[in-house]
Amino acid sequence: MASQMSSCASLPLRDAIDAHVHVWTPDTVKYPLAPGFQKADMQPASFTPEQLLAHCRPEGVTRIVLIQMSYYQTDNRYLLDMIAAHPGTFSGVAIVDENAPDLRARMKALKAQGVRGFRLYPKSADVAAWLGSPGMKAMWTAAADENLNLCLLINPEALGPVSRMCDRYPQTPVVIDHFARLGMKEPVDRAGLDRLLHLSKYPKVTVKTSAFYALGKKQVPYLDLAPMIRACRDKFGAERLMWASDCPFQVDPGHTYHDSIALIRDRLDFLSHRDKAAMLRGTAERVFFG
Asked: Residue 79 contacts by C-beta under 8 Å, 6 or more apart in sequence?
């Protein structure tokens, strides 16, 4: 069975990479929150790199991709400062205003500071119109030219418009976060999964197998997600999938960091050692640390 637990517990795969983590600091004087956010919105109140690494290190995770937290919006200073303070440990995914002047120059400046991608999420219900805006066109063009990843936080209904963008910009590296949140609001449906799998036709698209706590039954050990993971492995290949925890949200009550990495590392018997090495290190290393 695809969801059968592997008989080999804690297969040694050293130097793993977590491809999706958020960090923030309670110091809102040095790092003020963006308009519209308050300290009460920060749950937990603090999640610094030191707190993060306490979860990562026991599981052999040595490098991490930091995703700019929405609390800060386009003020990427905390993310950049943490990359600089931990050389070789962090890569970054920033947020920029696609309508800002000198967009390409801003993206290049962030690249020089350790950023390897930019987080995008729809600003309105009309995803196609948002993706077709002048700012998005400029961003997709610059990302292709600079080999910077556009990391899409989208729902399944956005997969069609995203596919059309991949047709128009085939050289733009695209990362789909959290399986496009298939199974977040309702069970994983075949039509939505087929739309995600359709993106495998574009060689520059990769997928994060992540946020297990929020998908499907939302219950440890997450084996109900095995068919979706297997379908992605079969269609994209493990070399285009990357594991991520989505910390700190993965470590809410009832879920642990170990639970997340163990699904890929220990519990899916259809994943070969080579598959696991790609999903736990190789893909993220190429995409975010290359």
From this structure: 23, 66, 68, 69, 72, 92, 94, 115
Instruction: Name the CA radius of gyration of the chain, rounded.
Output: 18
Residue 232 domain boundaries: 16-288
Indicate whether 37 belongs to any domain: yes
Structural contact between residues 169 and 140, judged by C-beta atoms closer than 8 angstroms = yes
Number of domains in the chain: 1
Nearest of 205, 204, 246 to residue 69 by alpha carbon: 246
pLDDT by residue for the chain (290 residues), tens only, comes to 344 444 334 445 679 999 999 999 999 999 999 999 999 999 999 999 999 999 999 999 999 999 999 999 999 999 999 999 999 999 999 999 999 999 999 999 999 999 999 999 998 889 999 999 999 999 999 999 999 999 999 999 999 999 999 999 999 999 999 999 999 998 999 999 999 999 999 999 999 999 999 999 999 999 999 999 999 999 999 999 999 999 999 999 999 999 999 999 999 999 999 999 999 999 999 999 98
Q: What is the CATH number of the domain that holds 212?
A: 3.20.20.140
Question: Does any domain span residue 259?
Answer: yes
Contact (CB, 8 A) for 138 and 98: yes
Q: Of 84, 88, 55, whose CA–CA distance to 247 is shortest?
A: 55
Beta bridge partners of 65: 91
Starting from the edge strand earliest in sequence, which strands make up the sheet with 90-94, in order? 16-21, 61-67, 90-94, 115-120, 149-152, 174-176, 205-210, 241-244
User: Whole-angstrom Cα distance, residue 287 to residue 206?
Assistant: 9
For residue 207, is it within any domain? yes
Q: Is residue 8 part of a domain?
A: no
By the 8 A CB rule, do 19 and 210 touch? yes
Q: Which residues pair with 67 in a beta bridge?
A: 93
Instruction: Answer yes or no: are the C-beta atoms of 136 and 172 closer than 8 Å.
Output: no
